[in-house]
Write a structure and sequence with these properties.
Length: 244
């Protein structure tokens, strides 16, 4: 077949695949959380009697504390998930060794659910159960829906989320080093944060092969709404209850 007549793929080439271990979900989560947390926090402090230096110091401590919290949470979550996955993998190995007929029936029923006729399901089942290693891998992947890639490195996951949170905290904090008045700094911080959210969302969409404006709009809308809610809780609500 002439390669020139083959349809052009709407996806990127093999070289354009995401590198192994890249978790765009963690990057987006960390950066969005960092930006929203710092923007809301700074908005609540901008009208306070604190000095400009105290606001910067408080924001830096909040960014560091949030980063450590995100990292610790990611580490514990990854460890817990890995323990659960390993337990399920070992359970499947035990069942193959101790109740093989039941597991063989499950393989057969899986192929029936895939749409194979009974005769072919029986044939393929016999071939799979002939090799215990292949049998175990098949059951882990097809019955449990677990892949080896699902086992994360807890330290890497923790570092990625912690660094992403700090990276997201930089845009709202940066203007406070250049604007001496808190309300001017916060206005610039809000604009820079929304711009950063748009850029992050655009890059996310490009990696997913979607229109850039889709991810940018989602990030700006959702991140902006979360920041507005934080501002309301941190500044407007206390004034409403005469707590400021």
């Amino acid at each position: 077949m002439n390669e020139n007549n083959s349809p052009s793929s709407p996806f990127s080439s093999e070289a354009g695949h995401l590198p192994a271990g890249l978790r765009i979900r963690d990057v987006v989560l960390g950066m969005n959380d960092g930006m929203v947390t710092l923007t809301s926090f700074l908005g609540g402090l901008s009208g306070s009697p604190l000095s400009h230096t105290s606001i910067i110091y408080s924001a830096l401590m909040t960014a560091l504390a949030g980063s450590l919290s995100m990292g610790a949470g990611a580490f514990l979550a990854a460890r817990s998930q890995n323990d659960l996955i390993r337990r399920e993998i070992e359970r499947e190995r035990w069942e193959i060794a101790n109740v093989p007929e039941l597991e063989k029936k499950e393989v057969y029923e899986l192929f029936l659910s895939f749409g194979l006729p009974p005769e072919e399901s029986t044939l393929v089942t016999e071939r799979i159960v002939a090799d215990p290693a292949v049998w175990h891998r098949f059951m882990v992947r097809e019955e449990l829906g677990i892949h080896e890639e699902a086992i994360e490195a807890p330290a890497r996951s923790a570092a990625l989320l912690a660094i992403s949170f700090l990276a997201g905290a930089i845009p709202p904090l940066l203007p406070y080093f250049f604007f001496p008045r808190a309300y001017e700094a916060f206005t610039a911080a809000l604009a820079l944060s929304l711009l950063s959210l748009a850029v992050t969302g655009s890059l996310k969409s490009r990696l997913a092969g979607e229109p850039s404006f889709k991810g940018a709009g989602e990030m700006v809308f959702l991140g902006g709404a979360a920041a507005a809610a934080g501002l309301f809780l941190g500044e407007i609500l206390p004034r409403f209850f005469h707590l400021s």
